[in-house]
Structure formats: structure tokens, C-alpha cells
Amino acid sequence: MGSEQGSEHGSERGGEQGAGAGRREGRMFRGHYTAKVDERGRVKLPAAFLATVRERFDEELFVTSLDGRHLRVYPLKTWLKIEERLLRVPSMSAARGKLLDRVNFFGQAARLDKVGRFLIPQRLRGGANLDGEVVVLGLLDYLEVWNPSDFAAKLAREELTEEDKRLLSELGI
């Protein structure tokens, strides 16, 4: 369906390396792979990420965005945990309202088909310029899908600063 290339963080054939080394229950999404959006607006999860979804979760997803420029793809079980935390935030919280406005405006429930594809919501397909080749990034407990040139521009714009490194160090990272 699409070309899947392993990143420097693991290869497609590397199995555990690309999706998350270690015990099965500890597998996380890490690294990046390329995929293609088909003519119907579906993207097939790269094999390493698909294996993690199928082993740790089920085929239900929540596909959304915070800004309309890229996708956040959550296994539904992960998204439900976020919703549980949001329920503990006062309903009058402006930050909670802004977040819910965005994730619901851009978001839709999705289900993986038999070959591991999911449909990108129409509102996001055009706004995020997700046609043809895309980059699928593992961010530990969820995935992001980007237009490759938009992601390269983001990296150039958002450098990892000395302040960032200091804060990460304080967190023990």
C-alpha cells in the first residue's frame, strides 16, 4: 500500500526495535516511518506501529488534532484515560474548554480495517496537507501524522534549546 521506511531508531523488519523494545506490555510507539495516504483518504499504519496497536490495544482509535496542521492518533483506550483526567478538571476551566473544542472539532473515532488502515477526517486531510507521502511518528503512547515538509519546517522552527535541556535534566531525562 505505501512504502514504509525504518528510521534510525529501528527498522521495519527489526520488529521490537521500531515499535518499542522490551516486554510486550511495555511496548511504546517510537521512531518514524513513511506511509502513503490513498485516494480515499486512508493511511495504513506502518507494520511496527500496527503490531503495537494490535498487541496492546484493540482496533479502535481516536484521530484528532490540536491545530489542524497534523494528526494525533490515539488508541481509544489511551484517549479514554485522557478523558477520565479531563473529567476531574472543573467544567468551567478555560483551558479544558479550549482543548475539548479543538479535539472535538478536528476529531473522529476511527477503526482499523483488516490491513491496518484508518480514515483521516476530511477536515484534517486538506488542512494538514495530508496527501501522498506522510511521516508517522511514535510519541510513546500516541502517534502523529505529518506532511514531511511541514514537519521539517517545525523542526527548524522549534530548536531544542539549552533551557529545554535544563528542564529535561531537572525531570531526570
Structural description of this entry:
- By secondary structure, the protein is of the alpha+beta class.
- It has helices at 16-19, 47-56, 76-87, 94-106, 122-127, 148-157, 162-170; strands spanning 29-37, 42-44, 60-64, 71-75, 108-111, 117-119, 132-140, 143-146.
- Strands 1-7-8-4-3-5 form a six-stranded antiparallel sheet. A two-stranded antiparallel ribbon has the order 2-6.
- The chain starts with 15 loop residues before the first helix and ends with a helix.
What features would you highlight for this structure?
alpha+beta, 7 helices, 173 residues, 8 strands, Chemotaxis protein chec, single chain, two-stranded antiparallel sheet, six-stranded antiparallel sheet, globular
What's the average pLDDT? 84
Termini distance? Answer: 37 Å
CATH class: Alpha Beta
CATH architecture: 3-Layer(aba) Sandwich
Question: What would you say about this model in short?
Answer:
The protein is of the alpha+beta class and 173 residues long. The protein has one domain (12-147): Transcriptional regulator MraZ domain (Chemotaxis protein chec, 3-Layer(aba) Sandwich), CATH 3.40.1550.20.
Topology readout:
Layout: H1 16-19, E1 29-37, E2 42-44, H2 47-56, E3 60-64, E4 71-75, H3 76-87, H4 94-106, E5 108-111, E6 117-119, H5 122-127, E7 132-140, E8 143-146, H6 148-157, H7 162-170
Antiparallel strand pairs: 1-7, 2-6, 3-4, 3-5, 4-8, 7-8
